[in-house]
């Protein structure tokens, strides 16, 4: 047997500090909230202590953002704003390894993903939006569309740096200022981004980053001087925010959960479909709102696909996120691990057939072996609820109409995948999918030029592309 | 059409006549170009270090078909290549021997004399290599000559013109006949993937060669660009894996041409390991057709053991 020797990326590159502070008005300051300890989910050790914002800190941050908006940022020509945004993009690339290692430490995702996906895509979002800053008049929203003001942004723990980039880059390009709250369990890379922003000499107050738990997020979105709220996270919290904002004139975009169908027809390129299924559900441990968590496979190839899929999943390497050969890293928190276990147990109890990869798991840390449920029916919880973990539910269909009906039979509608070699069928399916993103013969591909967002309980508003600018412009 | 071995009924049907063969080959699942290239690039980022790297280097050395296929080949050149095959690194006798020496038919005897009793195979290209543009009689005579001269492995080329014009039966029959002419010698079927161009064609040609009884499927002659590439090798590895799942038989894969350094060779081994499976990590089932690769493997091997780089002057140039 040929065993790959451990090939760990050095954790020193992360430049980890014992304490991190919040970033308000261009300075790193101590928050007056209760400090939080962020842990490495792969080892359960404490990585750093992070100061958090109290209600008054939220107010200070919003005031700083308002002042920066009124005095500097909204008046600055787009071409000048672009220079700052380009500078941030270049600095992210410069410090790419540091950000990648830190992200893997704090989040648990494998280094190959933070290195090859999260960090480069984050930089790409700044580059892309920097280009828009002086061309907003050509975006199709009138000759000189105006910014909204102060944007309050709350982001999740699954792509900490990338989500910060998705939120901050378009806001800045359109001329808004930002108060951003990173997730409680993954605040570190956003604070290194704050350091980058400081070094790029962005005018004080244009970007403020205030760590904390849900209560900080709640006071941020409630703050009367916030003009725009952007939230990515769970559907439950999204609904609370929408209720809170009802009757105010704040603009809102929500990017919430999903239960995407990945639909494989019998004429699909099967080996690549298997890759796409694996990438769809095991990428980032399945902590992806657009994960292809429901596999819909045509009955005539179901056995073959399942067999190939299991063989492929058995080659996935689960373990140390810093090892360059790790394919699936650690579940982000104990809480999430408990939720995944609870849902998979319900799958077994409801009669689905469970298969789990034979891969060894580390003794410490929060890990969950890639799992596939077959014989799943639409009525089961594992087919309806978002698991947000490395768990795939396999359903079958007989005709394209049935595939459409089953795929759309969910309160969510974020993404879908269609696998077939027949071009006309791809288009036919794409028209019928109630999903914001439809991938064909691929899955989980992100590009700043392509709008991303959902239907129904997956939220509303788009991020990325020309369409994404609308969320940050007064149109 | 006569199938060379007893096949499971589904596959026996495939080779019943020309039209069933065509139906079978066109019924194979397609290959998505973007997907297979992405997967090959992704697996290419595996980081193989320390003991696993040294193991990979030794394994790769034992899989090399040390090749010289030049118009300028002479008995002297072949003899020195044979010497290299026996003792790749003269200062380090523990270095494994290569799998085979690969030459043109008229050089087979020279190579066979040099390699007698060493366990190193003599492979010969045949069948109007590299173009394959001749009559079947000449191709068979070419094959028989190589085997009589002492070749234990024959690397044939398929008729790409026939394949691309859809005359699959002709290609199939040729492989079956050459296989017969080989006797006990192992048959490697060169698909010349650089001329087949699409991955769908590579998959069809791979299955065609497996159905006709090829012991190995080989990417290229080395005379056409592009020669071996990682994604093409992925598709061929998938074919032998699927073949094993359906028949229980193990068939081999040989990428040839363009694999020049250790880093690339290790990417191929990772693909073998994770696409086909660990049992293919064996010189009986995977080979590198290469001439310059061996010296880079030897240099990297020294680096691993000595802790520093030496240089091209410390390995023998043959």
Note the main attributes of this structure.
heterodimer, A: alpha/beta, Aldehyde Dehydrogenase, Chain A, domain 1, Aldehyde Dehydrogenase, Chain A, domain 2, 2 domains, seven-stranded mixed sheet, six-stranded mixed sheet, 15 helices, 18 strands, 40% helix, globular, B: TIM Barrel, eight-stranded parallel sheet, Ald_DH_C (chain A), Aldehyde dehydrogenase family protein (chain A), oxidoreductase activity, acting on the aldehyde or oxo group of donors, NAD or NADP as acceptor (chain A)
CATH fold field value of the domain at 9-54 and 122-292 in chain B: TIM Barrel
The general outline of chain A is: globular
Instruction: Give the fraction of residues assigned to helices of chain A.
Output: 25-40%
Oligomer: heterodimer
CATH topology of the largest domain in chain A: Aldehyde Dehydrogenase, Chain A, domain 1
Residues in β-strands, percent of chain A: 15-25%
- Report the major sheet of chain B: 8 strands, parallel
Count of folded domains of chain A:
2
Description:
The complex is a heterodimer of chains A (475) and B (318). In chain A, 40% of the residues lie in helices and 16% in strands. Chain A contains 15 helices and 18 strands. In chain A, α3 crosses α4, α4 runs parallel beside α5 and α9 (270-282) crosses α10. The longest helix of chain A has 22 residues, at 111-132. Chain A is globular, with a radius of gyration of 22 Å. Chain A starts with 18 loop residues before the first strand and ends in a 6-residue tail after the last helix. The model of chain A has no long low-confidence stretch (mean pLDDT 97). Chain B has 318 residues and is an alpha/beta fold. Chain B has a domain at 9-54 and 122-292: TIM Barrel (Alpha-Beta Barrel). An eight-stranded parallel sheet of chain B has the order 7-6-5-4-3-2-1-8. In chain B, α12 (230-247) links the parallel β6 and β7 (252-254). In chain B, α3 (33-43) crosses α12, α5 runs parallel beside α6 (108-115) and α11 runs parallel beside α12 (230-247). The longest helix of chain B is centred in the last third of the chain and has 18 residues, at 230-247. Chain A binds chain B through residues 1-7, 112, 116, 267-272, 275-276, 307, 315, 324-325, 421, 441-442, and chain B through 29-32, 34-36, 38-39, 45-53, 55-56, 59, 238, 245, 269, 273-274, 278, 281. Chain A: Residues 28-474 form the Aldehyde dehydrogenase domain.
